Amino acid sequence: MSNLEDILKSRRDTRHFTTDEVPDEVIQKALQAGHWAPSVGLTDATRYYIIKSDEVKTSIKKLFLDYNKKAEELTDNPEQKELYRSLKLEAIEEAPIGLIIGYDRSVLNQFTIGTIGSNEAVKFSSVCAAQNIWLSLTEQGYGMGWVSILNYYQFKKILDLPENIEPLGYFCIGKPATNYNNQPMLQQLHWKQKSEAPICAEITEIHQINISDFEVNSKNEIETKPDFNKLLQEKIDSKTKPVGSLGTLETLAFQIASVFETLNPKIAKPNIVVFAADHGIANHGVSDYPQDVTRQMVTNFLEGGAAINVFCKQNNIKLSIVDAGVNYDFPTNADLIDAKIAKGTQSFLHVPAMSETEVQLCFDKGKDIVQRIAKTGSNCIGFGEMGIGNTSTASVLMSLLTDYPIEECVGRGTGVENEKLILKQNILKKALENYSGQADLISQLSYFGGFEIIQMAGGMLAAFENKMLILVDGFICTTAFLIASRINPNIKQNAVFCHCSAEKAHFKLLEYLDVKPILNLDLRLGEGTGCAIAFPILKSAEAFLNEMASFESAGITRK
């Protein structure tokens, strides 16, 4: 077969193979064709793994069958479900050769031409390689089938693939057992018809994207309810205790009742939301951990192995994980809220971290997430975060918004020491010196912001609008609150600052906001752990207000 058009038309996703062996020279020629595929920025990131072992093929087949069962349940249409069951995939064990095509994510640790707009360009290069291999095999009289219905996490584990290698899928190679009447198999089995011609439309005009103008309130006026406040204070003071003797618990009880606008407040369906994203500034050595730890920790959250999982389970708090902009493609079946803006921000040392449109998207997505949680009946939401490099982002934003020198806003983050701490300070100082943008909030956020930080700020604003109790974790979350409070200062009445972290700038930021944290346990983990640990104290405040006897009901003489 030599006519290019014939090769393209006959390229099929092969599902059944003969037992004929595939000569090594056929595989080598196909892989060379893959190697000739476009490679963004000449990263040469595509990797190949050959599988001939029957034992390995059987293990992959089992993975497929397990996941295929879950896929079958995704349709409620009985006829479609029955047809889906008929689509057997014997090719994994039938095909003489198994091939894994993947890409090396670690190439993104260095500056790469072509990945500035989208890190996914590296993956797209590998897809081009897969297509070249397909066409080469077709031209040589062989076929290939793409198996994507897999749990990729387990797939990587059983094959012991390196952490930095991301597979596109498992590919079966051999002699096709049928030509499927020269049409796609799914079309032959009446699953779906492929359109006769490509779908193409011409774009003839530009549409303007409207960015909301955030009006920063200069007034910090909170609506007062004198009659309600008086009744509430009387209820607190009438409990069988000296006035004020429960200290912070009395303050919290007053705040909880005020937020919920009832003398008998009940915290319902508490939810801690952890927003995760990557930061371009992390590529400059400001953290002790590589950027990929963000992705690893999100996986840990999803598997229930992190500190926040333990504390939420202990206190019966629902945990929600948000991908706000992690430099990774998580499986679509992961128990994850997908709010990805991009695969990490750009490095604000040289260029804006994001566009103003992306800032708006962050606010919108953060608000939408919290709105949906509020609709479940939740009236208490905690905010947590995960993102290597985000203390640097928070430090710069704190310095800009408070006018504190950057040196007073920089801490150890994940634990950087001595020389590395000085390096971190110098890099952030240089980034601020390089900034020549406007002094308005949107301009500053677009240049120095983080996806998860701005989404948290948007979420906090939505929580206030929904009369929810807002639990603020550590330094990064408090920086998000600082942003939210610039847009609506009244948000402060709903906010509970759960702890003062070991990050030195956190104390100064709490002081700047004129707020008092509940705990001081030298925490610096993030993840919303401070919210989960402080939660029982909120429940104690609720309990004493609702259940503790009054002097009158107990028949005890007041002072």
Automatic annotation (TrEMBL):
Any GO MF annotation of the entry: oxidoreductase activity
Residues annotated as the enzyme's active site: E527
GO terms classed as biological process: cobalamin biosynthetic process
Chain ranges of the Nitroreductase domain: 8-175
Pathways involved: Nucleoside biosynthesis; alpha-ribazole biosynthesis; alpha-ribazole from 5,6-dimethylbenzimidazole: step 1/2
InterPro entries from the UniProt entry: BluB (IPR012825), Nict_dMeBzImd_PRibTrfase (IPR003200), Nict_dMeBzImd_PRibTrfase_bact (IPR017846), Nict_dMeBzImd_PRibTrfase_N (IPR023195), Nict_dMeBzImd_PRibTrfase_sf (IPR036087), Nitroreductase (IPR029479), Nitroreductase-like (IPR000415)
Keywords: Cobalamin biosynthesis, Glycosyltransferase, Transferase
Source domain of life: Bacteria
Signal peptide feature range: none
Enzyme Commission numbers on file: 2.4.2.21
Keyword Transferase (UniProt): yes
Reactions it catalyzes: 5,6-dimethylbenzimidazole + nicotinate beta-D-ribonucleotide = alpha-ribazole 5'-phosphate + nicotinate + H(+)
Transmembrane segments: none
Cited Pfam families: DBI_PRT, Nitroreductase
Entries under NCBIfam families matching the protein: BluB, cobT_DBIPRT, PRK00105.1
Chain's role: Catalyzes the synthesis of alpha-ribazole-5'-phosphate from nicotinate mononucleotide (NAMN) and 5,6-dimethylbenzimidazole (DMB).
Family label: Belongs to the CobT family.
Protein's UniProt name: Nicotinate-nucleotide--dimethylbenzimidazole phosphoribosyltransferase
Gene that encodes it: cobT
